[in-house]
Amino acid sequence: MSTMRNLTFDAIIIGGGGSGLRAALELAKSGKKTAVLSKVFPTRSHTVSAQGGITCAIASADPNDDWRWHMYDTVKGGDYIADQDAAEYLCSEGPKAVFELEHMGLPFSRFDNGRIYQRPFGGQSKDFGKGGQAARTCAAADRTGHALLHTLYQNNLKNNTVFLDEWYAIDLVKNANGDVVGCIALCIETGEIVHVKSKATVLATGGAGRIYASTTNALINTGDGIGMALRAGFPMQDMEMWQFHPTGIYGAGTLVTEGCRGEGGYLINKDGERFMERYAPNAKDLAGRDVVARSMVMEVLEGRGCGENGDHVMLKLDHLGEEVLMKRLPGIVELSKTFAHVDPVKEPIPVTPTCHYMMGGIPTNVHGQAITQDGDGNDQIVNGLFACGEAACVSVHGANRLGGNSLLDLVVFGRAAGIYIDKALSEGIEYLDASASDIERATSRLARWNESSGGESVPELKAELQNTMQNAFGVFRQEDNMQEGVKKLAELRERIGQAHLGDKSDVFNTARVEALELDNLLEVAEATAIAALDRKESRGAHSRYDYPDRDDVNWLKHSLFHPGDKTVTKRDVNFTPKTVDTFEPKVRTY
Amino acid sequence: MVTNITNLGRSGLSDWLIQRVSAVVLALYALFVVAYLLFHPNLDYVTWSGLFSQTWMRIFSLLAFISMAAHAWVGLWTVSTDYLKHTGVRFAFQAVVILAIFVFLVWGVQVLWGA
Amino acid sequence: MSNLQVSVYRYNPETDSAPYMQEFQIDTQGRDLMVLNILTMIKDQDSSLAFRRSCREGVCGSDGMNMNGTNGLACITPLSDVVKDNKLVLRPLPGLPVMRDLVVDMGLFYKQYERMQPYLQNDTAAPAIERLQSPEERDKLDGLYECILCACCSTSCPSFWWNPDKFVGPAGLLQAYRFLADSRDNATQARLAELEDPFSLFRCRGIMNCVAVCPKGLNPTRAIGKIREMLLSNAT
């Protein structure tokens, strides 16, 4: 390994999606030597698929809107295990971050007065839940993620950010003190392995929806950052919390935005009944996503599902009229025709709850600094390691994320991490250099795959892993199923450790990348499974048949999965926002 | 900015405009000649040279020749920069074309006013 | 009829002296799959096949390729749209250097995009809230901002094939107009000046292959015409 090339940056950002690009922009603007390392060209990142919008109290649809109402909704939506200081930061800093995006050129849709268009989304209220439905999601038609990602990429070009496009980060490099001092990366085009040295390493690698067989996530969402952090020995928070989006297109898994229901669409069962009126009499179809997803599964289980197998429900939009659909939801019309062979102007779209978002991730503070714990359970900052976006768990989403809060999370905490790193770099950071053995440790799994000479194939093992997660850790969970799932994952770990990489070529070897991704899927799946088995209650997206109720006495806590001994401990939730009163846990109804 | 020193107008916009305006002139001229031929089915040399002895016809014809020269230069320059990737070959081609256009233009003037 | 005959362009610079076409028989079980599904099925058999893919729903622009002679996105192209006589021929996007198999080097394409300075330029002080824009002004961006940079258009354009270093190509020009048309941008003169030479914009000959292949239904030729109008009214 002595011939390995070094690249040195002030900050390396792994991941070219919304949060990574926002962090990079902050650093590039202040002249720090910043590189974004992304396994795909940045505008191919999964942020591009976000549709409905970015939720933020910019007081456009309602001039009296208040970020505190948004914060209340966020905390309630997260079933009270969102950290309230973080939710406070998200919602109060949000307007600044959204206006910045507009100034950068994001083509938001507009109201007649020229201000940014906002639409209603699930879980939104005025006056702390007492003032009815709010309209707080800023939108660029139904292509907000696309518009946001392209805008951020364009502004990084403007500010001369260095891009390592189609490079794949393999593992973090830690020095003798346990500080993160960079990563080992693979240039996909040439196959070269490079040691990227940096004083700040930001994991902005997004989600890992591909641990499930059915997901709205892009094929690239394999939890690479989570896998790297777990292998480096860092804990993961709230990994049992996976959001199932109510409206994935049946069969294809592609997303249909919640904005459809925000614009007035609703779900119907096989009798044509608007069933959400029974489950959430006030918010109806705009209840929290976890609530709607569970209601849909209940309808199917009780025999009111649609289709030959009665295994899905329908999203009705035709009553909105062609003009509204073409103006506000043109992308949905297109997707429905392509993937459901249905024209929503005329017929309802078949939909089913589909894995969508990872609320858990690398625990961080509001500055994006990764957190671990010492032997006595005290929080400790990991030097040199940062995380933002879906890979991070700040935590603002708690046990269930509200629609439109993800894009806000990306830009607010991407920006926050950038600001913090910029300041820290200016003040000066010095870490011990990595030794040869530190570097060798970070290349060991690549060496394992490169030396493999036989064993099972990657696609088969991946499919088995995805089916295991789908069957045992879906919308509803129970002890025996999950026990079996955990056992199956342990067996898969053995087999993946022996699996075979058939193609050992250097130039654009996507088989090697997929093999390395499989390692990460396994790490994420295992953390999810063990954390889910551990949490003996139902909260937010984590619903158990055997523990159907929320248990605030024992479980008003974050879970923390420790990769070393594969144990789960509890971590306190923050209930002390700086400028508002604490939102005390209440029964969550919509 | 791409630099170009051998194209006609030094700007894509003026080349584009020259191409369109010269095309209109050539179309009008062609229409006129075709119509003239149709209205004179038994055309003889005297009538034909009579037409070209009138000053307005000579000016119209000269305008058409100049348009033809400009149109051809813009068009062939474009073709040469599309397909001839070797600089020497492209330069030689352009030189031949411009020489030919110059010769035809001078010759045309001589034909119009010489006889 | 469910056995589809698929012919795929293969080239690995490490081992192949020249590209070749490889034949595969794929059992579709009569389903009208997307072309990307077929590629995945082939890759499950032969892991060495290289192609790009990400969102698998037509918004990321990764899997632009040439399918039975027409450029498009593999993930949203159903077999019924392209397959003729039970045959499917898959090639990389034409006109760009091939790195491996169906993966092309998009460097020139991106370079032309970057040359258009594809970001909002406004040197007036930003207000405390958003810059206002009427719905009518915003409507002018529809059909422009949706571009996903898949390169299906530029790589189907003969003018781009001949001069990829000088002609911006339909994708870049669409972006140029997206900012020219934005009421919030005030770099109009500089943007137009960049396009006045004989190649950058004027090499468009109105062939309209770009319009025919755009998977998002956009119309770069129309945008190019609009820029030409702006240049003309600027100069006369």
From TrEMBL, chain B:
Transmembrane segments: 21-39, 59-79, 91-113
Subcellular location: Cell inner membrane
Keywords, in A-Z order: Cell inner membrane, Cell membrane, Electron transport, Heme, Iron, Membrane, Metal-binding, Transmembrane, Transmembrane helix, Transport, Tricarboxylic acid cycle
Protein known as: Succinate dehydrogenase hydrophobic membrane anchor subunit
Record's signal peptide: none
Highest taxon of the lineage: Bacteria
Pfam families assigned: Sdh_cyt
Annotated NCBIfam families: succ_dehyd_anc
Metabolic or biological pathway: Carbohydrate metabolism; tricarboxylic acid cycle
Species assigned in the record: Salinicola acroporae
Gene: sdhD
Automatic annotation (TrEMBL), chain C:
InterPro entries: 2Fe-2S_ferredoxin-like_sf (IPR036010), 4Fe4S_Fe-S-bd (IPR017896), 4Fe4S_Fe_S_CS (IPR017900), Beta-grasp_dom_sf (IPR012675), Helical_ferredxn (IPR009051), SDH/FRD_Iron-Sulfur (IPR050573), Succ_DH/fum_Rdtase_Fe-S (IPR004489), Succ_DH/fum_Rdtase_N (IPR025192)
EC number(s) from the headed UniProt entry: 1.3.5.1
Alphabetically ordered keywords of this record: 2Fe-2S, 3Fe-4S, 4Fe-4S, Iron, Iron-sulfur, Metal-binding, Oxidoreductase, Tricarboxylic acid cycle
Co-factor(s): [2Fe-2S] cluster; [4Fe-4S] cluster; [3Fe-4S] cluster
4Fe-4S ferredoxin-type domain boundaries: 137-167
Pfam family, one: Fer2_3
Protein's UniProt keywords contain Iron: yes
PANTHER family found in the cross-reference section: SUCCINATE DEHYDROGENASE [UBIQUINONE] IRON-SULFUR SUBUNIT, MITOCHONDRIAL, SUCCINATE DEHYDROGENASE IRON-SULFUR PROTEIN
Name of protein: succinate dehydrogenase
Species whose genome carries this gene: Salinicola acroporae
Gene: sdhB
